[in-house]
């Protein structure tokens, strides 16, 4: 089969979507299918390493925001509109794999219909729910939901990262064909035994920090707690980054902020940490989500403190060696930090082995390809 993966974010830009799609491209190629990735040009200073990949990558110029990200509807359109014409006049493919946002899903469905090509759509999260949680006007939420429904319904198959996302997709688009494939991390990169970064005892929050994640709870816990010389490190980027810096300054919390780094360096920070941190603010529209930053930590052999609702709490309850799950409250987080900093016995190998067996991205990619191939192919026009 001839595949094309359509995405406005891809390696070397560090993100869960980048890693997930690169693993899928590798799996498709290893299964002796033809695959090409249509994505964006990296920011200045980032090396794509495309020549070393076992598949083709075509990169389009794109508008980025002031922070250097393809984020915002003008930026999305700068990718989506040229992509539509690439689908329309480019090589004929047997299957497209489309990564959100919903605007890309709309243009991909339109282009795919004109070329009579089926597409698979990645259901990594629910953008309309996220819009609602940030207080977007009602007409914006309705528009995003309509675009999402259009993308879901037209897909050959929607690939959901967990059962909670799958259930929500079925509520929004009852006619969509949804398969849960799970989510994971590259356990070759996020693995124990390599270089460690960071000094002394510290907790690390890696990856995106947006308002709906409520990562401020960790800064408040550090500001109010007494953890000796232990510090908090934020490693990444996100829409809440500046407000988190401001909060740390206001509270005088021992927090260091480090901008996004390549995956190999992120893994080194995780290996050096006593514990990593992840959170979801209750009622933000993401109660069903499972933060992928937790998978990266476990792959590196580092336990996690997770604050918030959702399926992550059950996994931590069933596997105490992986860390601690608590309510999204300062007192609960502070107590969990005290408990985790007091741990003297390392469980690195046990945690890493669990990750290899349960959240390996290569296994997720194999399930994704299986779901695409095993679903009877027919153009969906509903």
Compile the SSE list and pairings:
Blueprint: E1 2-6, H1 16-30, E2 34-40, E3 56-60, H2 73-89, E4 95-98, H3 102-115, E5 119-123, H4 127-133, H5 138-154, E6 157-160, H6 163-172, E7 178-180, E8 202-208, H7 216-224, E9 231-237, H8 241-251, E10 255-259, H9 263-272, E11 275-279, H10 293-299, E12 304-307, H11 311-318, E13 323-326, H12 330-341, H13 348-358, H14 361-374
Parallel strand pairs: 1-2, 1-4, 2-3, 4-5, 5-6, 6-7, 8-9, 8-11, 9-10, 11-12, 12-13
Helix pairs in contact: 1-14, 2-3, 3-5, 4-5, 7-8, 7-12
Pfam family, one: Glyco_trans_4_4
Protein name: D-inositol 3-phosphate glycosyltransferase
InterPro entries: Glyco_trans_4-like_N, Glycosyltransferase_grp1
Give an account of the 3D structure.
The strands form two sheets. The chain has a seven-stranded parallel sheet with strand order 3-2-1-4-5-6-7, sandwiched between helices. It has two domains: 2-184 and 360-374, Rossmann fold (3-Layer(aba) Sandwich); 202-358, Glycogen Phosphorylase B (Rossmann fold, 3-Layer(aba) Sandwich). The protein has 14 helices and 13 strands. It is globular and about 65 Å long. Helix 2 (73-89) packs parallel to helix 3 (102-115) and helix 7 packs across helix 12. The protein has helices at residues 16-30, 73-89, 102-115, 127-133, 138-154, 163-172, 216-224, 241-251, 263-272, 293-299, 311-318, 330-341, 348-358, 361-374, and strands at 2-6, 34-40, 56-60, 95-98, 119-123, 157-160, 178-180, 202-208, 231-237, 255-259, 275-279, 304-307, 323-326. Helix 10 (293-299) links the parallel strand 11 (275-279) and strand 12 (304-307). It has 382 residues and is of the alpha/beta class. Helices cover 42% and strands 17% of the residues.
